[in-house]
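assembly run, all chains below
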Amino acid sequence: MPWDRSKMAARAALELEDGFYVNLGIGIPTLVSNYVPADYDITLQSENGMLGMGPFPTEDEIDPDLINAGKQTVTELDRTSYFSSSQSFAMVRGGHINLSILGAMEVSETGDLANWMIPGRLVKGMGGAMDLVAGVQRIVVLMDHANKAGESKLLKKCTLPLTGQAVVDRIITNLGVFDVVEGGIKVVELAPEVAMDEVRQKTEATLVG
Amino acid sequence: MPWDRSKMAARAALELEDGFYVNLGIGIPTLVSNYVPADYDITLQSENGMLGMGPFPTEDEIDPDLINAGKQTVTELDRTSYFSSSQSFAMVRGGHINLSILGAMEVSETGDLANWMIPGRLVKGMGGAMDLVAGVQRIVVLMDHANKAGESKLLKKCTLPLTGQAVVDRIITNLGVFDVVEGGIKVVELAPEVAMDEVRQKTEATLVG
Amino acid sequence: MGKVYQDAASALDGILFDGMSIAAGGFGLCGIPENLIQAIKDAGTKRLTVASNNAGVDDFGLGLLLQDKQVKKMISSYVGENDLFMQQYLAGQLEIEFNPQGTLAERLRAGGAGIPGFYTATGVGTEIAEGKELKEFDGKTYVLERGLKMDLAIIKAWKGDAQGNLTYRRTAMNFNPECATAGKVTIAEVEEIVPVGSLDKMAIHTPGVYVQRIFQGAHEKRIEQRTTRAA
Amino acid sequence: MGKVYQDAASALDGILFDGMSIAAGGFGLCGIPENLIQAIKDAGTKRLTVASNNAGVDDFGLGLLLQDKQVKKMISSYVGENDLFMQQYLAGQLEIEFNPQGTLAERLRAGGAGIPGFYTATGVGTEIAEGKELKEFDGKTYVLERGLKMDLAIIKAWKGDAQGNLTYRRTAMNFNPECATAGKVTIAEVEEIVPVGSLDKMAIHTPGVYVQRIFQGAHEKRIEQRTTRAA
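ok done. output:
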């Protein structure tokens, strides 16, 4: 049985290590913060200028001066520090963030990532995604294995404009966990009762190992 | 009668305009701060990370965490802000400082400045001088007209390694005030009882206008 | 020589001209110079090039300048919250130059710091790098990005003093310090003008040297995504 | 996962190796990591490349590492206060790479910010630019300078917490924040370790992400030029 969104997020949380500084993308990746082990010391970075992002505020705690990169109201923690945008991206670009978990439209077998635009449709912009994939130490993509039309999102080559070239380390989908390795995509783990045959059928990218 | 050091500093203080942000070099330029008109709002930058440098401390006020770029103990003012070295030189390099008054070993008629090393002698380093001359809006040199051997320090071409190329706007010496203009050095003002003949005789650089 | 002005309109006096470039602080609607944007709308200045991470929403923030088609070009990383923007863009009335968010922040910082160009790995292999110079350092490819210097920077801080020293509050800081450095002229609006000497000297995020004019304004501080948890 | 160590020696455990590169904060003797320098002297690590604005004095600061000839090369802007330095330099036992002060600060910041190179007008037309790539932007010539990334950064702050958040005091900040970002490993010594949450969140000059190890030390804080006025 393929993982649902919650199980995907829970699986992605296993990518965390104690002491990590982590940036979570908008969408499913945000859910990962619900599955951080209680005894882990994890610090979330929000690229609009905050290290040590806390949970959403209660109604009383709402502060218009305190939002995350998705423009949602959030709270601070004891450990929190604030800084400007260039300082925030110095952290990102300089490789000081251990892990980023991001959504994607497509990932290629060489680790190319496309998640910012669909030509012909309205273009909203890449925000901080290109900086994150270029700078963060490890990039994990969290996405459905197939798009709404049932087509594989794990491709030999991305068809959409890229966010980054050869930047993805691991992909977690509803079907399992996959690594970008020499020669293609390696199956690391399958969701319960998901068969290799199903994965082969639903994956356009070259599967190796 | 040529200006003495105090008069040179007082003349250099006339270069200040109300509201200026100013960086003063080590040596005679430091004395300029004694001649700031009382009704002028002048802010001194110290390139080790301070805007709004105050006077030397009284014995009681000495703080080892509060020094200027010459490593002398100083004080803060109400307006003072502190920042790191890269921020300090962002200010300098980015052209946000209005005026720097610096000492020199040699200045050429094209505005080249040499003030950081004498080959064969002990080399101490340029400190922030190269950044200042490259970035500050206006560079005024305050120096004796001749060196100890009586040779002109205002030259057709510098003989010493340069601190900056075509960076000097004005030179104030014990003999007068000189501007770097198209074709050479223009006499702007002479110290009392100094004759043009004396300046001509003591200046190697081409004098124009 | 005073830097303190009465309001946005007087602070902008003599500064605006058609075709000028403006850097605007803020992230989404957080930490935006609300009063200055409104005053530029009122002034009706045209053909603006605006560098700002976002373009506001239809009826607030930089969106206000789109209503009367005052903007010719935006330099932004994300404009998804603005329908008016999309209409004008698709109608060919508005140019957009997308910059990765970190590249935009660094371009503004570089422009303010006298750095005309820097290399970054961000965008290499994507259309962002097309037409730009590539260079290898230690076996890895980087793209040359240019510093940005703008005719005017409009920024919003929490507290400021008559010397132009500014301090920001929480994530309302965002792009404001970078914009402050990148303006040939920088105007700051603050929630409160405080006496010189009352700000913590170790927490002055924008030293006064970067700020030419300052005024105290009223701020609505609209929230884009009001997200809460149970108490 | 704790970042807090007992003292300089334990904080350096497993980090030092002969031939390594170190970025050291401080300006003159102000804001230098006194305890870490002494511990590196005690450890006897050799052939060091040290990036630091100055080289201390004969018997304090980085001068201590010169006494036993532990330093192979200095990357500095000004070394005028150190006779031992001069002796070793003139004897060919010590290399010096002079960097303009602002260029050194920006190289450390760039290294820490993932920027492998940037252009500056500083040093163009001087021997500093010799052998380096020149490039014209808008009719003016600039020189390409490289980001600096070092094996280790040793820095000194005023207060810090167990998360590695640091705040500096007055001009003792200087190069410390830049060095903190430029170290593959960064060790901070502070005058006081304070509880997490007690630092002003708007005045944390070095966020904890840059600091791997931290300890509280005793500081002599020697003054180089004691200059006073009459009371």
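The radius of gyration of chain C is 18 Å.

The first helix of chain C runs from residue 8 to 11.

not gonna interpret more than that til we talk
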